[in-house]
Design a protein that fits this description.
Shape: elongated
Mean pLDDT: 95
Strand content: under 5%
Oligomer: single chain
Number of strands: 0
Radius of gyration: 22 Å
Structural class: mainly alpha
């Protein structure tokens, strides 16, 4: 394994320390866990991307409803 020195401020170091699963966990292990959590190994499907685009279009066009509006409408049916 290659070692690299990275400068971080003390507040970030404290935050990394707080994220340790156990006191002897290395920063390498902490950062590795964080990267694993942040990176999605399975990309979104084309269908999901299209659904998201349609949803954004609906939002921009004002086609949105509050939850209480939807509940009230469903109770009427």
């Amino acid at each position: 394994m290659t070692s690299v020195t990275v400068r971080i401020d003390s507040r970030l170091r404290d935050r990394l320390n707080a994220l340790k699963a156990h006191p002897r966990e290395s920063y390498n292990e902490v950062i590795g866990r964080l990267v694993d959590m942040a990176v999605d190994a399975e990309p979104l499907s084309e269908e999901t991307l299209q659904d998201l685009e349609r949803s954004i279009e609906d939002l921009r066009a004002g086609r949105i409803y509050a939850l209480d509006e939807v509940v009230a409408e469903l109770k009427e049916e």
